[in-house]
Structures are given as structure tokens and as C-alpha cells.
Amino acid sequence: MMIDRLAGNAALKDSVRLMLGSRRLTHSVLLVGETGLGAGYAARCVAADYLYPAGGAPAEALLRGECCRAVGKAGDRDSGRIETGVVREAISVTGMGSGGRYLVSQVKAMRTEIFNTSLSAEGRAVLLYHVERMNEESANALLKVMEEPPEGVLFLLTADSLAGVLPTIRSRCISFAVAPVSPEECARWCIGQGVDKKQARLYSELFDGHIGTVLAAARDDARREQVEKALTLAKAAAAHDSYAAAVLLAGYEKDKAAAAALLGDFRAVAAAGLRGCASTPLTGDAARRALSLADAAIQRLAAQVNPKITLSVLAAKLG
């Protein structure tokens, strides 16, 4: 089964196997886990096992995310449409509005598609990523189909946290938590996916077993460079070198999104130091202080405080 490819999470996998084996899988499943833990991957595994019990090329394509997509344009309620993908039986919906917000047009397009399209022998699966980004309007559009779904349709929802999901959606799903694996197991799994051994071990420690985050960092040149800069900033903090910190952070003064992303990785480095990771320059009280300063700077950026001022203050305090 494809669900067996999910690292760790034995209880989740056992429950899915049992429900699929007895054909008692509820029509709406919510998978909850922090970004990078693999909730989306788990959802695709369940969808593949539901649609293609024998596996094969369609199941592999679904795991890669090569399914149809519900798309739309912000401000245009009638712009929703379905882009055809390799896997015709699965539709994915990821918010396309500001901050990843769901558009009503996307949900309406998905709803129309599954009601009007004749079902294949396998059924249909709808993958809705990060449903904590739904507002009441898009949630109400989804509820209209979740309450009385067409025969053979399985809804698979993911969210960063259960508390962030609207109660109207949450109450109609059976929920499972996707847990992190140990850094050692994470590294083994990522090495099996072709990640360099040294990188896999370092990133698995830094990101505390978040497989998706490790893969994203290892496979993207810009993200790898960002992690290296976060480690460099941590070295400056450990040495109380405010000048080195200021020089590095000056390159982010005009790009608030990039600054927040860098500080997110710097925060991960500091948190890893608190866990005793030997690969980080920060440990003990220094790691705790850096973590607190990173959190404060990220909050200021989110509150629209001037990035130049925020980063200058951070550099001074790191020194």
C-alpha cells in the first residue's frame, strides 16, 4: 500500500489500512500536522490507496501530485475552473488568494466538477490543502458538497493545526495527527530519496524530523543558500558579533518576505541548539536568547514594522 511509504506514524497507517480493508473509510478525512511533516503526502498516499488498490502508474503519479487542479482568480467568483492533470480521478485545491487564502471560485469549480462528471470505476478523490486558510464563505461552499457528497467521492483535507480549522468543517471529518519522526529516521528516509547523506543528517537535525522541510531544503539551491545564511547568522550570534550579523541582515532590508523566511530558518537553528544538536553554533542560554529574538523579529515583520529597523535592532541585540 502507498500509505506504507509514509515514514513513522504507525497508528495512522494502521487506521487507514483497517478502514480501506473493510471499505469503511469515511467520506471526509482531516490530516493535521505542521508544515513539513508530510500531511499533504499522507493525503496523497490515502487517495492513491483508495483509488488504485493495486498501485501502478496512476498511483505513483498521484503521489507526485500530478492530478487535476481547481484554480480561480481573486475577486472573480465565476473564474473557477479545473485544470486537467495526469490523474483524472483526483482534484487538488490549494488556496490562490492573498496568503494562500481559498477562493470561493475554486471551491465552486471543484464542486461542479464532482457533481457533473461521471464517476470512474475507481471513484474520485478531492485533496484540499491547508484548510485552515478557508474563510466562512469558502467553507460554506465546501460544506454544500461535504454534507451530501456524490457516491464514491473521498475528501482528504490537511491543516497545520486542528484549532485553525473552522468548526463547521472539523465536525464533518475524522481527524488524524501526522507526527514527526526522529531525526535519525528522517535522515534515513531522505537518503533513500536521493538526498546527500551529509545534508540529510544536518537538515534532519535542524528541522527536527520534518521530512518535507528537509526535502525542500535539500532539493532547492536557493533554500540551501538560505539555510547556510541562517547558520552563518547563528555563528555571529554565538560570537556576539553584531557587525557580522548586521552585514548579513542588511541584504534583506528591502525584502520582508525573504527576511521572514531567513529568520524562520535561524529560529530552527536556535531551536536545534536547545535540543542539543551538535551541528549548530548556538547552545544553551545563547540558543534560548537567539530563539526569543528571532520570534520577536518575525512578529514585528508580520505587524508591518519597518524591515530595516527590525533587522538593525535584531543585529544589535545579537551582539
Automatic annotation (TrEMBL):
UniProt-listed SUPFAM superfamilies: P-loop containing nucleoside triphosphate hydrolases (SSF52540)
Entry keyword Nucleotidyltransferase: yes
Alphabetized InterPro entries for the sequence: DNA_Rep/Repair_Clamp_Loader (IPR050238), P-loop_NTPase (IPR027417)
GO molecular-function terms, A-Z: DNA-directed DNA polymerase activity
Broadest EC class assigned to this enzyme: transferase
Superkingdom of the source species: Bacteria
Protein's GO biological process: DNA-templated DNA replication
EC number: 2.7.7.7
Keywords: Nucleotidyltransferase, Transferase
PANTHER family given in the database record: DNA POLYMERASE III SUBUNIT DELTA (PTHR11669:SF8), REPLICATION FACTOR C / DNA POLYMERASE III GAMMA-TAU SUBUNIT (PTHR11669)
Protein name: DNA polymerase III subunit gamma/tau
Organism: Faecalibacterium prausnitzii
UniProt gene name: dnaX_2
